[in-house]
Amino acid sequence: MKRILAAVAAALILFAGPASASVPSSAPPALSGDLTSAEVSFRGSGNLLLHGSVISPAGAEDERAGVVLVHGAGTGTSREKLLGEAVAFARQGMSVLIYDKRSEGYSTFKRSYAQLADDALGAVETLRRQPGVDPGKVGIWGLSEGGWVAPIAASRSSHISFVILVGANAVDPLRQQSWAVAAGLRKAGVSGSLVDRAEPTLYRVIADGGMFPEPYHDSESILAQVRQPVLSIWGVHDLLTPPRETPPIMARALEAGGNRQYTFQFFAEADHAAHQTPDDGVTRLPELAPGYAELVGTWVGQATSGQAPVAQVSGPEPVQADDSVEVPPTAWWESAGVQLAAVVLLLVAFGAYPVVALVRRVRRTRVEVAPLRAARLVSAGGLTVLLGGFAYLFYVIMTGVKLAAPGPLLAGRPVVWLLLQAVAIITAVATLVTAGRLRRVATRGEQARLGLLVAGGVAFVPWALYWGLLLP
């Protein structure tokens, strides 16, 4: 069942390329004369061979600190994606290890934060053995998804001396993603049942069908096990993480474990990755937020000398227009399996009517009963809403972050969604009309054909209500 759902979603979403292909070893990064690069290889989870580069300041002193950078979400991600951060941190006097992210065992539908944490631990041990690096001063940095991975690694190893998180989430991944898409849609002017009901419902079904990896990862319990000093950074225009909600949850989790050596810093005019943004988080510039790299350098020096600040929070207030909402697991009656069965049954009920008509025409079978216009509306309307509704919903969640593109709006509702709702209403009304004409049909064959269609129309109403198609 999960494989069927995954295949359907993949076809609708049109994901590009196989996610299981191995990431080739990248070429050594081109650096300016003040920096050096050394190529390294190490074993990650499952003994997978991973490749990376250690970037250091030229002529750097011995006993320097080091940091491993952990990627955010995405398949086929090479080390070059974090080269800007690596160069900036190296210029603060550290050795920085960046590596090509695994793609074996990591895809759109499958990934393990624990596995990624083991990869990061392999990188940490490699960096600790590099010439000039003090093995007692090596930490880990995680961006976005890496903000879930890095704390797992830190909770498993006393060899990690500090933790830096950027754009990290303290809510579970499913809640975070649902919020990000909803926020993008609301920023585009969308309101009503599409964003309030249909979008979170789709995410719940996707998660239940096994197509959303690690949906309920408990970051709080992991953070409570982190004993190292923590520096967490957010851009005030973070559109992927609820930046106002996350810090208090993170602080609560750390303090629950007895850790008060945390520093939270917000950067103005910065996005999810703490890069500069000219348009409130929509566009990411290559440049880091002013002062970000310097803060990392200063704070790492404090953390590795036992002088990490205690419970320090500073910077401008983050921008977050709407709170995230819990996205609970589905009940049995709304599970992915039940949803799939309902869709199949509705497709059969609505599709049988035109199929029988087509067969009759091909066979040139004469029928005494004139076709009902209302019955045609039920069949055509039901099929349109089923197929068009899911196609539009998948399109919405794929374009709902940052540059949300729901199409033209009317009174805060996408015109496409309003049309689907109008067709859903027509389908429901036409079902009543068809049911009223059912007894007047003389032939049993036609009664069975219309009866199946009416049954589908009756079942369609609660289904459409559940998905918000019959709600304002």
Task: Describe this entry's structure for a reader.
A hairpin with a 5-residue loop joins strand 1 (35-43) and strand 2 (49-57). By secondary structure, the protein is of the alpha/beta class. The radius of gyration is 27 Å and the shape is elongated. The chain folds into two domains: 22-196 and 214-314, Alpha/Beta hydrolase fold, catalytic domain (Rossmann fold); 332-466, no CATH class. The longest helix is centred in the last third of the chain and has 28 residues, at 336-363. The strands form two sheets. Strands 1-2-4-3-5-6-7-8-9 form a nine-stranded mixed sheet, with helices on both faces. A two-stranded antiparallel sheet has the order 10-11. The two termini are 32 Å apart. The protein is built from 13 helices and eleven strands. Helix 6 crosses helix 11. 44% of the residues lie in helices and 14% in strands.
